[in-house]
Amino acid sequence: MPKTPSSRDRLIDSARYLFWERGYAGTSMADLLSHAGVNSGSFYHFFESKEALLRAVLETYLGALRPMIVEPAFARAQEPVERIFAILEGYRERILQTECKYGCPLGRLALEIDPENRPAHGLIAENFQGWIGAVRECIDQLQDRLPAGTDRDALATYVLAVMEGGVMLSRSYGSVDPFDRTIAQLREHFRLLLA
Amino acid sequence: MPKTPSSRDRLIDSARYLFWERGYAGTSMADLLSHAGVNSGSFYHFFESKEALLRAVLETYLGALRPMIVEPAFARAQEPVERIFAILEGYRERILQTECKYGCPLGRLALEIDPENRPAHGLIAENFQGWIGAVRECIDQLQDRLPAGTDRDALATYVLAVMEGGVMLSRSYGSVDPFDRTIAQLREHFRLLLA
DNA sequence: TCACTTCTTGGTTGATCATTCAAGTAAACA
DNA sequence: TGTTTACTTGAATGATCAACCAAGAAGTGA
Description:
The structure is a homodimer. By secondary structure, the first copy, chain A, is mostly helical. Chain A has helices spanning 7-22, 29-36, 40-46, 50-76, 80-97, 105-112, 118-141, 152-173, 177-194. In chain A, α1 packs across α2 and α7 packs across α8 (152-173). Chains A and B meet through α6, α7, α8 and α9 of A and α6, α7, α8 and α9 of B. Chain A binds a DNA duplex through α3.
């Protein structure tokens, strides 16, 4: 049943796309409305402001993390470390598909949105936390193969930081190389940890 | 001689500050002009557009890297690995000084500026390259303490990616913890490499 | 049928955006 | 002194910004 999405859904879909492509400030209401095919009156029927739409978008990312990012990666690999790198491989593909224009939509918003906007940053942090949680699951499965006393949460956070940093560099260099070199070092880190 | 800075210098100084605090799109010409105490006519006497100002700002970062970031860190530590972590400690201090609002100004622009704007991204990449070069110097001094076949450039790139990722997370979490945990893992990486 | 809610239409608001311009001042040089 | 160059002044431009609103359509339940 390919039911036509409601105006509200189309607004959120368009905002997801445009905030990722042009950023929050770089997306005008006019851009958004014409992309979604919705009139401004309808927009303000569903959302009280552009900022409220941002929050709604960040909430949909929360639900999209597992089906769109984590589960496809977990389906491609069984071994815990390979699952982590399968997630990262997903980001590599997105970089290639977008000719290095890709930036993680969350990372972009994390740096763009005013830090005073705590609701938005709370949601971004929640998204990051979900991502860290998925990596943490893999790390936990390594059991005692890791050195005693390894801070597993910190290690999972580290994986996220490396990914975000790698994506950022690839965007400016216009090449996937910095991402690849960064991920290769992370692989070496895991190799050393498990040696 | 505390000579009054010229209008051009004041414009660049203000732009450095405002682009860092509010981003490029988030800084209006009106904000900029009033912050610098300059009229719009003077601005367009020195710069052909807001975008030209962005390029000028990115060029000043190029010159500021060593005196502002690298040399103070190198002065605090002699040992190569400690010098790398002294650079990172500088970023930690900036996070604390700004109550976690701090994001690396280059990282912010790297994710914000349209990838089609190659001149700007070229300058950002040049800045990153300078940073990587400084870390690379330290790594080179480690000589044969590193495992044979270590990709030294990739390792230096990795340090930058970890820093940028850590700064990003701290901004959204509103806490220096993610940065600290991330840097601690990087330290572990160097410990394992040199073991 | 009528009343009520939900959603859509699209024109309008006033603020703010980057940029332009004609007229001016001030110092340097002839 | 007259002329040139470098810079400043600040009002004006038209485009675009997020947000608002009154009117109406479509659907639901009584």
